[in-house]
Here is the input.
Amino acid sequence: MTRVRKMREADIAAVSAIRVRGWQTAYAGLVPGTYLDAMTVEADAVRRRQMFARPRPDSEDLVALGDGGPVGWVRFGPYRGAVPGAAGRDGEVYALYVAPELLGQGTGTSLLNEAHGHMKALGFDVSALWVLRDNLRARRFYERAGYRADGGAQDDVYDGITLTEVRYRRALA
Here is the structure.
C-alpha cells in the first residue's frame, strides 16, 4: 500500500509536475492540444505556492509517496456549490492526479481512500467530484470507488472548445 501524508511546501514542484503531466496524459484527445501544450510545471508551481501561502483551513492536500518523493496528489474540501436535494454536509474532491507511469497500480485508490477518511473526520457526509464526461477511464475509476453520476453537469471552455463535466457523488461511510 502506498504511504500517504499531508502535502508540504517542499512537495510543490513534484505536485506541479504530477498535475501537469497528469493533465497532458489524461486529457490528450479530450482537451485541445494547444491548451495542454501551454501548461507548464513552473506556472503551476507559482499558483500552488500562492495557494500554499494562503491555506484554507477547510481544505487539505495529500500526497502519495514513492521511493523518490510524491507520486500522486489529491486536494479536497467543502463542496463549491449547491447540490439540489442534498442532505447533510457535502465535501468535494477538487483534484486527484497520479504520475502517469503509475496509473492502475493502486496509488489513486490509496489517495482517494485517505481523502475519504479525512473528509469524514472534517464532518462531511458525502463526497462529490466533477469529471469530464468523455474521460471514461476516470469515470470507471470513480465508479469502482463507489461514486455514481447524479445528473449534475457543467460546461468549461478550453481554447474555445466547450467540454462537459458530470458530477459524481458517494456517501462517506
Remarks:
- Strands lie at 3-6, 60-66, 69-78, 90-98, 126-132, 148-158, 161-171.
